[in-house]
Specification:
about 40% helix, five-stranded antiparallel beta sheet, alpha+beta, eight-stranded mixed beta sheet
């Protein structure tokens, strides 16, 4: 049985706060778009748009949740003793881009990224689409686990590059994405770039077949601890503060307009009055705004 390592609960709450804020911002932008495109009937159309959006968000939250705990418990129980099992981890590889990993298993053989599906039956799996057998017919599945988990795999690698750059090159070839179905009667998955296995025992067999000793004990401990304490994405913004020859204070931000907005909001939060953000006439990736302090107090950004 592997040793279960849960994500730091305080940090986890920060992730969910950011996800909630993102959903609220997207909902607001949806409403603004409807008002702009339908100035007279916006109030009516907006109601339908919000209902559809809220239903989609709720569907995404609940999708696949039934029965997942049982399968994850089985995986934890059957996983080799030298493994760390990290269930239900949230990461932010890029700003406002989140992934939720059903399970990450780390041992000397590698890092195993597990996507759990409680589906049962017979399946045809491929990168383009999945099909399930219903009676004597094959029907398209409502989602494509291969496509979904391929995105998780790519973003997880990006997270490792950003957070463990010194060891990433030595571990990148030993990161194994895998899709675990609750139970299958039959499956054809050679056209899926992500391996598909049946049940917890199928996943354990997937681990056993990998060569041992690809990671060191030190690397296993380092990656596990880094994941356990993983914080939301922190973007380092390049900005400088200065004054014109007339003594008017300004802030210059190199990056995107969104970067400049973030810096501007930080100044406002610290008690400054700010002007609108302008783009530099010579450097299109440089933005600036002027500041005036309401009260004297140190600013820390």
């Amino acid at each position: 049985m592997g040793q279960v390592i849960k994500q730091n609960e305080k940090i986890r709450k920060l992730f969910y706060e950011k996800i909630k804020a993102k959903i609220e911002n997207e909902r607001q932008r949806l409403g603004d778009k409807v008002d702009e495109e339908h100035p007279f009937l916006g109030w009516l159309i907006k109601g339908f748009a919000f209902d559809n959006y809220d239903n989609k968000v709720m569907h995404d939250k609940e999708k696949g949740s039934s029965g997942e705990d049982e399968l994850l418990d089985q995986i934890c129980f059957l996983t080799p003793n030298d493994s760390y099992v990290l269930p239900d981890y949230v990461l932010e590889p890029r700003k406002s881009v989140f992934i939720q990993m059903d399970q990450i298993v780390i041992n000397l053989k590698g890092i195993f990224l597990v996507e759990v599906k409680t589906w049962s039956g017979s399946f045809l799996a491929s990168d383009k689409a999945w099909k399930i057998k219903v009676g004597n017919k094959w029907e398209f599945c409502s989602s494509n686990p291969t496509k979904q988990h391929k995105r998780h795999f790519e973003l997880f690698n990006l997270w490792l590059q950003n957070n463990l750059p010194r060891i990433y090159s030595s571990i990148k070839d030993f990161i194994y994405p895998v899709i675990v179905l609750k139970r299958t009667d039959w499956i054809q998955s050679e056209y899926s770039s992500i391996p598909v296995v049946s049940g917890a025992s199928g996943f354990v067999d997937f681990i056993i077949e990998k060569p041992r000793g690809k990671l060191t004990d030190e690397i296993v401990e380092t990656v596990t601890e880094k994941l356990r304490t993983a914080k939301p994405y922190e973007e380092k913004i390049n900005f400088t503060e200065g004054s014109t020859k007339y003594g008017k204070r300004f802030v210059r931000v190199k990056g995107t307009f969104e970067n400049a907005q973030d810096v501007c909001e930080d100044y406002k939060a610290k008690g400054y009055k700010t002007t609108e953000i302008n783009v530099d006439k010579k450097e299109k990736d440089v933005f600036y705004f002027y500041i005036e302090q309401f009260e004297e107090k140190p600013i820390k950004l």
